Amino acid sequence: MRALRFGPDAVLVEVADTATALDIALWSRERITALDIVPAAGTVLFDGVADIDAVLATLEEWRPGGSDVEGDLVEVPTTYDGPDLADVARTWGIEVDDLVERHSSTEHVVAFCGFSPGFPYLTNTLGLPPVPRRSSPRARVEPGSVGLAGEWTGIYPTASPGGWQLIGRTTVRLFDPAARQPALLPPGTRVRFTRA
Amino acid sequence: MSILLTEADGLTTVQDLGRPGLAHLGVPRAGALDAPAAALANRIVGNPPTAAVIETTMVGMRFTSLTPHWFAVTGARCEVIVDGRREAHGEPFFAGAGAQVVMGRALEGVRSCLAVAGGFDVEPVLGSRSTDTLSWTGPPRLSAGDEVPCGTPSGAPRGVETPLPSPSGPLRLWPGPRADWFATGAFEELCAAEWVVGADSNRIGLRLSGPAPVRTVTGELASEGMVAGAVQVPPSGELVVFLADHPATGGYPVLAVLDPRDLHRCAQVRPGEQVRFSPAREA
């Protein structure tokens, strides 16, 4: 764990991997006072903290698996008919059916959110190499589009430009500002894609 | 109790203190870009600091006060005219039912704040009345024809409060978390150079062109959390200083971080103006 100062009110903690970042972020929520605690791919940001040294002292008490949080399991019914499905299967040298089978039989975990409100970065444990982004991003990706990029699966909550490889679509609502929990899939949520 | 906008051609939004605590869901914090100006406008009309104001951009706006209200305009200096009568910037003024109010073009600075006694009472979204222009969470931006509800005053207008003179001089900078991705001395060079504000600056970020910092680590940075004031250096070399509507995470290395005490000044620098930095010191 390496601490990097991010101005006078924030500190960025660099950790070994995504799972550790998520674990620390969830563990910290009840122990560290900050305006925002933001896990990402290999870091946790503590923003709006009064005493950075106190934050770092508290973090020394964290042990791997410390969060002990078993996130909710959410099923995301998905129609696997994305425009990039065949291309991704070809890149991996597998059949489309095999790709769909692997993707829908794996339990994913939301490592962090970003890009747009409620956009989940789901760990991709398909045992296949990272997927390159499209060489040219689409001007418009429809809400509910399920895509792959790098080591991640993502779902677009709203229409936006995007460069992820689209493999399917879902009709679940990912972000609802009027809801008590506005994001359907906050960090830590376990996700299973089911064939719609 | 409301006002009716008759002209709002620039970016015109309702803003309050923003919605912190949701960055882990990808929701920007938003909030008035010139926070001290918003706080002053609220104090002048007797509002608590949490009351919502209207933030205008460059060209100001016009409205009809459909009901009688006390108002104050702060931030970017502009003409304030009520039914043809000039009112002072930074002081409370009264507009009766049907009064026509003009907030003129910004004479210096960019963003003016309009407070009404009782606050603007649009429907809060996720606990805030701020519009965020990155994801458009919050109330929609305002345009001509919109009627904006006003709340019930809880305090009396305070009369005159002398605004602090706007600070001048360089913006204070701290070394950023990825300063070691750049050539030795890159932070000092950032502070020695002159930077020109780009026309595409907005509530998300202030864009600055100047001598591009030299990167020595060329690999991709995995997305990481970002704070307001983060000075990102994309491959173009143009600096982006993140402001209130910045994305929660970003993938370009942060060479420096603006001192929070100077963040509000970024709300008022105009495209084409020059900006300088200096190293910040512990208070």
From TrEMBL, chain A:
Pfam families associated with the record: CT_C_D (PF02682)
Signal peptide as annotated in the record: none
Keywords: ATP-binding, Hydrolase, Nucleotide-binding
Domain of life: Bacteria
SUPFAM superfamilies: Cyclophilin-like
GO molecular function term, any single one: ATP binding
InterPro entries according to UniProt: CT_C_D, Cyclophilin-like_dom_sf, PxpB
Segments forming domain Carboxyltransferase: 1-185
SMART domains in alphabetical order: AHS1
Keyword Nucleotide-binding on entry: yes
Protein name according to UniProt: KipI family sensor histidine kinase inhibitor
From TrEMBL, chain B:
Name recorded for this polypeptide: Biotin-dependent carboxylase-like uncharacterized protein
Domain of life: Bacteria
Species name: Nocardioides daedukensis
SMART domains referenced in this protein's UniProt entry, alphabetically: AHS2 (SM00797)
GO MF, one example: ATP binding
Stretches assigned to the Carboxyltransferase domain: 24-283
Annotated stretches, region: Disordered: 129-171
Keyword annotations of the record: ATP-binding, Hydrolase, Nucleotide-binding
